[in-house]
Specification:
alpha/beta, three-stranded antiparallel sheet, about 230 residues, 9 helices, six-stranded parallel sheet, binds adenosine-5-diphosphoribose, single chain
């Protein structure tokens, strides 16, 4: 029976692909006020500013590529049943070839109806404009979980972590709940590996191994540890 390897990834996973993180030095939230670009209030007050924020990120994503870390995670599917639970809204895990991916905070390349949330579309290109409407005539919005909105997939994510044989936390500061709380749903005493150049806020337990490296280096080390 193949072991279940669950990856909980955050913005640091995509840092080596040139996509800025949020809370590092020079991160996204140093340049933008979250409440002005990533909340329902922002959308109501200034939808154009919100659209511009996500259009710029989408444009950057189209010029970015999966890094070695993403590739290693997809390669681990040869040895384990791998489940990726990501806070990232980019599609780099998909483009690296991972098969089981759950996006907790939405997907940058998708848009959805403001009036019929089940109407979700792949956005061709990078630009979503005011006046771009769903099939039923309502304005389209980024398919992103904004601050203050519910993380509808958190229960599915908890179920995945609950049956993990190995948990790998990579590139997340574990600052944002409920995603950050997922670590506590892992079965007792399974091995947990935390890959991050700086130690995120996590109580040290004897089943947690910190690999203080960037994602591509840390995942290479982890792969050697897991499959030799
Ligand atoms: N490799 C691995 N980890 C890295 C790298 C790297 N090359 N560079 C930075 N990191 C680490 C940082 O040390 C930090 O712990 O990645 C983490 C990034 O943390 P955040 O910027 O807080 O990103 P994240 O944890 O994914 O944020 C969670 O907050 O803003 C919301 O919805 C947004 O999904 C996001 C959520």
């Amino acid at each position: 029976m193949r072991k279940k390897l669950v990856i909980l990834s955050g913005a640091g996973m995509s840092a080596e692909s040139g996509i800025p993180t949020f809370r590092d030095m020079g991160g996204m939230w140093e340049k933008y006020d979250v409440t002005e670009v990533a909340s329902p209030q922002a959308w109501k007050q200034n939808p154009q500013l919100v659209l511009d924020f996500y259009n710029q990120r989408r444009k950057k994503l189209l010029e970015s590529h999966p890094n070695k870390g993403h590739i290693i995670i997809s390669e681990l599917e040869k040895y384990f049943d791998v489940y990726v639970v990501t806070q990232n809204v980019d599609d780099l895990h998909e483009r690296a070839g991972s098969s089981n991916i759950l996006h907790l905070h939405g997907e940058l390349r998708k848009v959805r109806s403001t009036k019929y949330p089940n109407l979700i579309y792949e956005l061709p290109g990078w630009e979503l404009k005011l006046g771009d409407l769903c099939d039923k005539g309502a304005q389209l919005r980024p398919h992103i979980v904004w601050f203050g909105e519910s993380v509808d997939k958190i229960t599915d994510a908890q179920q995945i972590v609950k049956v993990a044989d190995i948990l790998v936390v990579v590139g997340t500061s574990l600052n944002v709940y409920p995603a950050a709380g997922l670590v506590h749903f892992a079965p007792k005493n399974i091995p947990i590996y935390v890959i991050d150049p700086t130690k995120p806020t996590l109580v040290s337990e004897n089943n947690i191994t910190f690999i203080t490296e960037k994602a591509s280096v840390g995942l290479e080390k982890l792969k050697e540890m897991l499959i030799t």
